[in-house]
Amino acid sequence: VNGTVLDSAPSEVNGQLSLEEASGSRIPVKPQDRTYTGFGNILFTGIAMGSASYGYLVGTSLSLLGTTWIVLLGYALGLVIGTAGTALAAGFISFRLGIDSVDASKVALGIRGSSLVVLGIIAVPLAWANITLAMTAVGIGSLVHTGSFRMLKGPWIVPITGVLIVLVLRVLLRKGAQMIERVTVYASVIQIAVVAVVLYIIATKFDISRAFQANGAAAPLAGDRLLQLTYGVEYGVINALALLPSMGGFARLTRHRRHLAAPWVIGYALIGCMLPTIAGALAAVLTHTDELSEYIVGIAGTVVGSILLILIQIANLGSLLVNLFVSALGLQQVSAFARLRWRHVVTVVVIPSLGVAFCAHWLLTQVMAILAYGGIIFVGLTAIIGIDYLVLRKQKASLEHVFIPTPKSKYWFWGGFNPVAMGVIAASCAMYLWLFDPVTLRIQGPFRWFGASIPSLAAAAITYYILMRLLIARSSKGGIVRRSFQLTRRWKCVSNCPCSCVDTEGFRLTDKAT
Amino acid sequence: MAITVGGRRHAGPKIVPATQKRVDRLLADALQERRESVTSAGESQLPLGTVFIEICAWIAAAALVWCVVGYSV
C-alpha cells in the first residue's frame, strides 16, 4: 500500500527479512521506477486507505455532536484542509528525493529525531487496527446472537472471536505484501459497495433530508451551530494529519508531480473517509442507536442487514491487514526489531490485539479520543516538516546526508536531534490540548472559530521558522544555507578557502576560484 | 563517491559504513543516480507550479465554505 510495502515484498514472501532487504526498502525510488503513474490508481489507493469500516463509528460519534449536515460538512472540510496540507508538507520532499516520510523527516527533526515519525507509523495504524478488530469481534458476536447460532450465545463469544481473528491475521500477515495487496483490493471494493447499498437504502426508504437536518442525540454535545461546524472541521483535520507518515511512502512512488494532491483529496478525503462516515451518521440518526449491527439491521431489515454486516466483517479484514502491516514495517525501522525475522515481527505486532479481544466494547467507546489523540503529534510534525523544507531550506535538501547516521551528517544537529523541532512539537501538543480536550470536549480561546489544530499548526510553523533562523541557521548545524554562501558560490569559493563554506547541495567545493 | 556539480567533479561525503557491502553499493548507486536525475531533469527547479496552486486552491475553497457556512448558521 505504501512504498515500503511494495519494496519489501520479496522479503515477506520468503518469510525472512535480511538486513540487505531492509536497507534496500529505503533506497530512493527513481522516477522511472515509480509505480503510481496515473490519477486512477492513486485515487483508488486513497479510497482504499480511507474507506475503513471504522468510518461508520466516526459518523455515529459525529452525529452526537449536533445537526448531522453541519457536522458532516465540517468533517469533510477538515479532511480536505488536512489532506491538502499533509500533501504539501510531506508530499513534496518525498516526491522530490524518492524517500519515505521517516527519512524525509530527518532533515528537520534530526537523524534520530525522525523516530517520532516512526512512532506515529507504529502507533496510529495499530490503534485503528485494534478498533477494527474490536468492531469485527463485536459485529460477529452480534450476528451470532441474532442469527441461527443462538446456542453459541454467551459473554465469551466476543473474546473467542477476537482471538480467532488475531490468529487468522497472523497467518495472513506472514504471507506478506502480495497477499495483503490482494485482500485489500477485494476488501475496499466490498466496503464501498456496502456503503453504496446502505446509502441507497437510506435514500429510498427514509426521508434523507430530514435525517440530515436531525440531531443524533436528544441533547447535542455542541449547543450552537458554529461550534458544531468547528468540531467537525477539527476532527476532519486531525484525521487527515495522521496521514503524514503514509503520505511520504506514496509520494516517493508517484511519478508525476500533478498527482500529489488531487487524487488524495478526492479519493481519501471526499470518497474513502466521507462515504462510510455519512452512512454511519445517517443510519445512527434514523435508528436512534449507536451500535453498527443494530442500525444496519434497522435500516436494511434482518436478512439484507445480516448480509451487509457479514460483508462489512469480511471487508474489515483488508483494513486490519493493511494497518497491522504498516505497523510491522514501522517497527522494522527500530534497530532492535530490524534484524528479526518477519514472522517474529508480525507476532510482536499482533500481541496487543489479543488484549483487545477481551475489552472490545470499551475500545469502541474511545474512537473519537483515539482519533484526536492519535493525530495531535502530527500537528507539530506537519508544521515543522513543511515549513523546514518549503520555506527554511527553499526546497533544497541533501539526499546523501539523510543516509549518514553519524555526526558527519549535516542533519545530525545535537545528538541526532534538532532541539528546536522537539521543543516546538511539544509546545504544539500542549497548545492543542489547551485549546481542545478531545475527551471532555472542553474548549478554550479561538477554538470556536478556528478549531485547535489549525492555530496550533500555524503557531508551530511560525515559532519554528523564527527559532531556526535565530538559533540554528547561525550555527554550523542543520545544513541551512546562509545568505553569505550565495556570494561565495557565485565567486566559486576554493577548496582551501578559510571560511570552509559548503554549497547548497552539501558538498565542499574544491576548485580554485576564477 | 564523486559528485558532479556544475560540470565539475567534486569529492562528496562518504556513504554510511554498513555491515554489508551490497547495501552500500545499492544505496550509493541509487543516491548517485537519483542525484543525477534530479539535477538533469529539471526537478531541481522549485516544484511549486500548478500543484502548489492546486493545493492552495483546495485549502482556500474549504476555508471559504467554512467561513460562509459558519457565518450563515
**Distance N to C terminus of chain A:** 51 Å
Q: How many E strands of chain A?
A: 0
Beta strand count of chain B: 2
Largest interface: A-B, 56 and 44 residues
Describe the structure.
The complex is a heterodimer of chains A (514) and B (73). With 514 residues, chain A is mostly helical. Chain A has helices at 3-7, 9-13, 19-24, 39-50, 54-63, 68-97, 101-109, 115-146, 157-175, 177-205, 208-213, 225-241, 244-251, 262-287, 292-300, 302-331, 335-338, 342-356, 360-364, 367-392, 399-402, 419-435, 447-450, 453-472, 483-490. In chain A, helix 6 (68-97) runs parallel beside helix 12 (225-241), helix 10 packs antiparallel against helix 16 (302-331) and helix 20 runs parallel beside helix 24 (453-472). Chain A is globular and about 70 Å long. With 73 residues, chain B is mainly alpha-helical. In chain B, a hairpin with a 2-residue loop joins strand 1 and strand 2. At the A-B interface, helix 3, helix 6, helix 12 and helix 21 of A face strand 2, helix 1 and helix 2 of B.
Main attributes?
heterodimer; A: 514 residues; mainly alpha; globular; disordered N terminus; B: 73 residues; two-stranded antiparallel ribbon
Please outline what is shown here.
The complex is a heterodimer of chains A (514) and B (73). Chain A is mainly α. Chain A has 25 helices and no strands.
